[in-house]
Predict the structure.
Amino acid sequence: MKIGLALSGGIKGIAHIGTLKAINEQGIKIDQISGTSAGAIVGALYAAGHSWEDILEFFTQTSVFDISKFAYGKPGFIDTIKFEKDLRHYLPDNSFEKLNIPLTITATEIKSGKLKVFQQGELIQPILASFAFPGVLTPIEIDGTFYFDGGVIDDFPVEYLMDSCDYIIGSYANPLTDISIASLEHSYQVLNRAFEINLHHRAHKKFHNCDILICPQDLSHYTTFSIRNINNIFELGYREAHQQLLHFKNKLEY
C-alpha cells in the first residue's frame, strides 16, 4: 500500500508542517509527495529526511523580507535566488534522485503560460521557481526559461499521485470562508481576496481525489503573507491534521 501526500502553495503552507507532525505521531509512512510554492519547500525538506522540527526551524529562521534579499533591477521586491544558500544548507545533495521519498514540484513557465513538472535532476532551482510569488519574488531562470509560482496554474497538485498511490492525504492551506464587506478596507485586501477565490475554486475540484483532506478553516483569518504568525499557522495545521488522521486511521489500515 502506497500513500501520497499533496501539499498546496502559499505562505500559509507552513500549516503543512503541522500535518507532518501529526503524520509522524500516527506512524504513517509517506511514499510519494507532490507540492507547489511553500508546499514544494516543505515537501522537499521532508523528502530529504528532515524532521518536522527541522522544517519549522527553516521557516522561522529564514527571513523572506530581509533587506539583504531585496532585488535590484529585477521584476520583484525580493530576489528569489538569494534563498539558494538557505536551502543548500538543508539540501546539500541538491538532487531529486538523492531524496528519500519521490517528489514532484510544479512551476509556471512565464512565456508560454504552461505548467512545468519537475521530478528529476537539480532540486533547488525548481523549488525556488515554484516558490517565486509573482510581483513579490523574482522569477527563476532554468536552462534559459523563466518560471514563477506553480500555484498560478495549479495550487494543489494532487493528480501526480493518483496513478501510483493507493491513498492520498491532501494538505490544503488556502480555505475560502465568508467575510464581511466591511473587512475589505484597503486595496491590497481586495486583491488578496481575489487571489484566494481564484486559488480555491480551482483547487476545490480536486478535493474529492483525496482520501483525507486536511484544510484548517481558521487559516482564512490570515493573509497570504502572514509571516509573523508562523507558529499560529503551524498549530492550526497540526490540530486539524491530528483530528483528521485519527478519524481515518482505520481506513489507512494502520
About this structure: Helices lie at 15-25, 38-47, 52-61, 84-90, 124-131, 187-204, 230-247.
